[in-house]
C-alpha cells in the first residue's frame, strides 16, 4: 500500500512538472507570431507590464534623484547686483542652484557688457544638471531693458491704436530674436492688463487698450510671436492690474470688483492666452477684496488655485511678481509670504532685489517643508512644471560669441516700418 502511494505521488509530480514545462516552452504560431501557451493564457498581464515600462516619466525619475535643496532652488528666480557676475550671484548658482535670473535696467550698460553678463551666468551654471532661465522685462515703450545701441519699440498703447494682429505677432517674433541674440530665454511680456483706470500710472501706456477685445487679440499675438522665436512668454499681471490707482512697487493696491465683473472683464485676456497655450503667468501683488480680503493675489489660494488653475484651466508655470516690491515687504515678512505663495499654488518665487531677501526666502521654504507646512509632493508638482517648461524650450547654458546690432536693428525697423 505504501509503495503504491509513493508511486502515485511521483507520477503526479512528473505530470505536473511536464505540464508547467509545456506551458512555458511550447510555442504556437498565430498570424505569423510565435507565442508560448503561457503567453496566450496571460497576455493582458504581459501587456500591462510593457505599458508600465513605457509610462515611466523621465522628469519624474529626475525629480526623485534631486535633493530638497535642489528642488527649492528651482522654485526661485533672483536678480543680479551690478553689471557683472558677482559673488552673491555665483553663490545663488553654486550653493542654492536657483532656477534662473532676471536682468533689470540697472544691470545693463552696453551690448558687450550685457552679452558678457548672460554668458557668465550660464558658464557658472555649467556644473549644475539643470540649465537656467535668463529672463527680462522687455515690453516695449518705457519698460525696455535692451542697450541703447538697439532700436526702441513703440508703447503697447501705440501698438493698440494701430490694432493690427500681424504687427503684434511680428513685434513679438523680432523681439524674441533680439533677446535670443543675447542669450535670454524668457520674457516677462506681454502685459494683458486692461487700461480701465486713467489714474493708473504703473500700467498706463503699458496696456494695449481699454477694451478686453483689443488687449486679448494683440496680447495673444505678441505672446505667439515670442513663442515662435523660442522665447518663453510670461503673460502678466494676473488677475489684472489695469484698474488700480496704487503702484504695487510702492504699496499694496486693492481692487474691489466681484468675481462676475472680473470674469467678464479683467480675466478675459488671460483666459484667451491660456486657451492659446500660454506657458507661464505672472501673478500680481494686488488685493481682490471681494475674493480674498486677507491675502494678495500672489499668495491667495482662491486666486491661484481656485480661479487660475481650476476655473481657467491653467496647467503651466505660475510666477510671482517680485516679492521684494513695496506691496509685500512693507506689509508682510517676505519669507512667510513666499511660503504662503507656494501653498497657494505658485511655482516660482521671483526675488529681484537684495541677496538677504533671496536667502531668507530659500530658508523659509526649506523650513516649511521640513516642518510639514508644505508637503514634498507640493514641491515636486512645481519642480515638474518648471523642468517640463525648460525641456519644452530646449534650454541650454550655451555661450554666445557675438551679436550683430546692425542686423537686429534692420529687422526691427523692417517690422515697424511696414505699419
From TrEMBL:
Q: Which reaction does it catalyse?
A: Hydrolysis of terminal non-reducing N-acetyl-D-hexosamine residues in N-acetyl-beta-D-hexosaminides
Which EC class is the enzyme in? hydrolase
Which keywords has UniProt assigned to this entry?
Answer: Glycosidase, Hydrolase, Membrane, Transmembrane, Transmembrane helix
Family note? Belongs to the glycosyl hydrolase 3 family.
Q: Which gene encodes it?
A: nagZ
Q: Name one GO biological process term.
A: peptidoglycan turnover
Q: What is this protein called?
A: beta-N-acetylhexosaminidase
Q: Which Pfam families match?
A: Glyco_hydro_3
Tell me, what is one Gene Ontology molecular-function annotation carried by this entry? beta-N-acetylhexosaminidase activity
Q: Which NCBIfam families match?
A: PRK05337.1 (NF003740)
Q: Which domain of life is it from?
A: Bacteria
Organism field: Clostridium aciditolerans
Q: Report TM segments.
A: 6-24
- Is Membrane among this UniProt entry's keywords? yes
Its EC number is 3.2.1.52
Please report the stretch or stretches of sequence annotated as the Glycoside hydrolase family 3 N-terminal domain. Answer: 67-389
Q: Which Gene3D superfamilies match?
A: Glycoside hydrolase, family 3, N-terminal domain
The record's SUPFAM superfamilies line, in alphabetical order, gives: (Trans)glycosidases
